[in-house]
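Q:
My hope is that you can spare some time for a protein that puzzles me. I hope you can help me see how the letters and the tokens relate. Thank you; the sequence and its tokens follow:
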Amino acid sequence: MNRTIVLLTLILAASLAAAPALAQESPWRLGIALGYGEKSNPLILSDDIPIVVDLDIAYFGKRFFFDNGDLGLTVADNEWLTGSLMARVNSDRVFFGKTNTDFISIGLDGASLSAAVEVVVPDRDYAIEAGFEVLSDGSWGYLQLAAFHDVSGTHDGYEVDLSYGIGWRSQRWYFDPSIGVSYKSAAMNDYYWGVRPGESSAVLPAYEAGAGINVRGRLTVRYFFSRNWAFTLAAQYERMNDEAAASPIVEDQNVLGWFGGLQFRFQ
């Protein structure tokens, strides 16, 4: 896994070195939004994830690019579509960083005696995934297809994602609604949402998750005060697949997120 991280770092360094020295337009996109928001946590014994600062850091060279944590190499670019090889870090792990421990008292065979059982949400690791992305856009909106497979040996699964969106401006306003579906393989689903026999207990039974499809919808609204300043409001709803939602470590199938704040873009 360390070799993979080094490789991704070298790819990013190569893309920076390949940038034209006298480019008229900067290949960088740098922005920061300060405000407040939250992302709900579907896990039991967990806290919602607060969002105070939203960073936008991207670099787009002739072939290589870095877009908020995703690394890419463009291999096809024409009037119909853009195709890229991609690498990313799986985002499902973020939920497991906001969990707690609890003790639950249970009766013993109907007797008056009871015992306190420790309930701990299992920990999960980040996974580095590689794959491809195909993007087509026009006046009708944009359509994006992406597929990723674990290359770090964390879950050995894969995900296929399809999304559609359309953005439009109205004077100082900009609206960007989108919808999407994600197919998550059994290996990926089970790694994050399953419960191993060694992690199970009387109140947390073992569970093996199969493959499933997540659906989501997102809306971003911006009001531009100037070229660099804007107020941003974003909201997203995602419904986890039934296999993940049936896990004993999941208490809510719906994941809601929102953020509102003042955004400044340097480029």
About this structure: The CA atoms of residues 39 and 257 lie 4 Å apart. The chain has one domain: 2-19+28-265. The domain at 2-19+28-265 is CATH 2.40.160.40 (Porin). The two ends are 34 Å apart (CA to CA).
